[in-house]
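Notes continue from the previous slide.

Worked example: a multi-chain complex. Inputs as given:
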Amino acid sequence: MSSEIVDFVAGLTLVDHHVHGAYRGDGPEERFQNALNEANNAPLVDPGQVYDSQLGFAVRRWCAPLLDLPPHVGPHEYWRRRAELGELEAARRLTRAAGVGDWLIDTGFTSGEFLDLTEMAAVSGGRTHEVVRLEAVAEELVATLDDGAEYGDAFRGALQVRARDAIGTKSVMAYRCGFDHDLARPPSDAVAAAAARWRDVVGASGTARLTDPVLIGFGIHAAVDLGLPLQLHVGLGDRDLDLRGANPLHLLDFLRDHDRSGVPVLLLHCYPYEREAGYLAQAFETVYLDVGLATNFLGVRSRELIAGALELAPFGKQLYSSDGFGPAEHHYLGAALWRRAVGDLFTDWVSSGDWSGSDARRVASMIGRDNARRVYRLG
Amino acid sequence: MSSEIVDFVAGLTLVDHHVHGAYRGDGPEERFQNALNEANNAPLVDPGQVYDSQLGFAVRRWCAPLLDLPPHVGPHEYWRRRAELGELEAARRLTRAAGVGDWLIDTGFTSGEFLDLTEMAAVSGGRTHEVVRLEAVAEELVATLDDGAEYGDAFRGALQVRARDAIGTKSVMAYRCGFDHDLARPPSDAVAAAAARWRDVVGASGTARLTDPVLIGFGIHAAVDLGLPLQLHVGLGDRDLDLRGANPLHLLDFLRDHDRSGVPVLLLHCYPYEREAGYLAQAFETVYLDVGLATNFLGVRSRELIAGALELAPFGKQLYSSDGFGPAEHHYLGAALWRRAVGDLFTDWVSSGDWSGSDARRVASMIGRDNARRVYRLG
Amino acid sequence: MSSEIVDFVAGLTLVDHHVHGAYRGDGPEERFQNALNEANNAPLVDPGQVYDSQLGFAVRRWCAPLLDLPPHVGPHEYWRRRAELGELEAARRLTRAAGVGDWLIDTGFTSGEFLDLTEMAAVSGGRTHEVVRLEAVAEELVATLDDGAEYGDAFRGALQVRARDAIGTKSVMAYRCGFDHDLARPPSDAVAAAAARWRDVVGASGTARLTDPVLIGFGIHAAVDLGLPLQLHVGLGDRDLDLRGANPLHLLDFLRDHDRSGVPVLLLHCYPYEREAGYLAQAFETVYLDVGLATNFLGVRSRELIAGALELAPFGKQLYSSDGFGPAEHHYLGAALWRRAVGDLFTDWVSSGDWSGSDARRVASMIGRDNARRVYRLG
């Protein structure tokens, strides 16, 4: 019974519903090291720290064999072989081994450094789909405005154009100002006033980084009006983020109103608030969640995280993601650790008689693939 | 050793210290489905979601055999057989299989739809005892008042009458306004002013729903003055509730004063704050806790929840409850999952040599029965 | 493989980086009982509650054999034998069995009742080092001041003298006012004004207990200026403490500035915020953590706590401590439970192939000993 479920999960083609492009070209070891530490966005004083972590151990254990190295190979050998293969070949091997059929790619933070949608499809052998980051749309727009009063219509227009071929939108409100703000649809004059203030700041500073809760909230409502599923970054991120404001419970008032729209809201990552997110997923028809990103960072402990997500949240409300970004170790590890955790947990639950084997296989398919297909209307 | 403890726990007659009446009569499948989703108090858009959850799987696994069905039977067959037996026969089977000797019934939310104290005793074969819900007493009272100044004495009088045969009181403050308010005993003029405001609202709206923290706090102090154990809803509930305000740590100032009274305060449910509740149970002589309701919703994961409750809280400060309400699956599952978790955990702890077998049996009896008997002075 | 790692961890000489003196002389059973309940700082109404807890069971299981008693001996026999041996002989046996080579002793709360640095070294057979508690330095100083304006320089001077032979400093800000304050370096006039206010209070009341966030914050910055590692009490403590304010996420703004200093900040205990602390340890180069104190109180459940700490926090950022204070059961149990948890967890992770055996031994050495040696520059 045990190996039957493990085998089933191992063979399941996944939808990675929140991910970014892998690196396009070769780079120095420092880039790789910093990309393995999501939380610390300053250059690492002690890069060795990156390898002495659950993530570092998981990379050496699970990714090494895909680079023709033995499991648990030392960091020095790992990097040497990786550099020898080159970034693209590493990305090719790791993304293909992930067993992902569809990648839903957040294009809000891309540059020439990352593979674009077409390249990711070619490298990975999977299909790619675009998720538009709302704050990026606003930041491209603001410098072009003559005054704040134009902002509302201009943003809606720009979003419609940018989202024409997209299958979802995403907000990083948690990073920019936290969720602990009034998230009711802001009136036009408040939007105009906030846009005017921001336009002045951008004009003076020359950089456009949106942190105003009124404009971010406006963007979220505009995205919901389009009817596309809305992804929200929740919980852990780098030190720019105040983890207190990234608690999804602050979304309560928003969700009470929002639920009537029927537009899916997908809570991403969620650690350490995965139980709170699960509560919301049970309480609101429109709320979904994943525990991507954290899965990778927890390595061998990801099993407990994934088990914790499997508490209150209905099985139809959970999705798989890697949040891979940069080194394709993330794209692969997300899938490898998810398969391992789900395979182990479900095998235990079937062995103890709590679940049936057919239910276990069905739930694995739902979370790994079918829920995402339904929510994003993938063909 | 293993089977000895499992057998002991299986044979223990429990006190279910927080529960409601089961349904009295037959109803449509929608009623059953909605009652399996505590958090979502709107009609379910996708009722199938209810069955694809830890709770749904636990119902199919553990309750099906009591309805003469095989474990893991499909939802359709489950409902068909349940409808065939009828609500009362299902309730009879499920409540009797729970192995509960005493049910402590919250009568604050009853109507003709639910079995009353006498009927629950007859159906279940156990004894029943009443717990009076404070907000219900206030809501029955408010429309009869001539002015706000009467409220204080009138509430105390009404509570004394209502609680004459009760063994405890209960507040749903967490639902109504959260705990993050000043919970010191309010002065008479503040109570009168709040009551006058509420009386006006009730007069205008025709509905009496108490949400004022001054009046709810007054009710709590009045209940403590009676000397009866006080139950407080903590943590998860439906979407009416703001989970942030339902964190029991907000009770700190209240408990610092309250502890001198010696009146037991019982924190109900507690998820996802069971560790915070355990901390309070260790810090304050009067604080007790349970993890009812959440136990049912977590199904196979309830073991970890119950293990988490067994951290800081002294074993003399923990109780069992199902929070069963409506379909008697809840009344049974609470007991079945509690027995299973405690049996498994204690067997492990005895096997590893951490606990002795006699301690394990003693603690199981304390939590399942003896603590409740002592706290509520059951004969 | 299993027994190899367990044996390795069992043989590892630890650095207990946060601990207090054991009792010097004999005392009544009530003192012992109260010292086993950290959270309740009032005299216990029901002392038996202390023994019916994970900590009580752990004492009877693990400490009894060191007093020549069988595991799980009853509380009455345990106390009788303990009293027969005397406090010092119990302390000698328990501290020596802990296998600790270096004790880093917080001397901020000592009196004649506790062994001093020299005595702890003699009793335990280990080396001892001093950690200076900042609030104690301030409280010794305040009554000697002529006015508030002297406070800043006087505190810096007194701290320099007190810390001359110390290897670290410690603040109990979490206890005194919580972390949810502005922790930027306060300007001189604000310090002088706060000191003047405090001096008046002390003069009027005759007792000096520092609770002012400006002065506590000033002390923390003064300590960082000395360059010594700074310990911060985080999370659980007794009922004087408001657990909401003891959440380390409130330190975010402070840490963003502080990180440039390179001075280690050690988050102590952390329960129930060990995951939040781990997030900070990943995000900031200077942040370290332990889960001492809670480890003892959780007994058999300490394995899950220690596993939870081994999530986001890099392995180079975790330390061992017992927070032993008074009865030397704490000094021993911290080590015994840590070894047991680490031995079990790492054995599992090596058995499943996730970790290599040599990595497991290396990480155990880092957390149990080497990280502390490096951070505190122990010889």
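Summary box: The longest helix of chain C spans residues 329-351. The radius of gyration of chain C is 21 Å.
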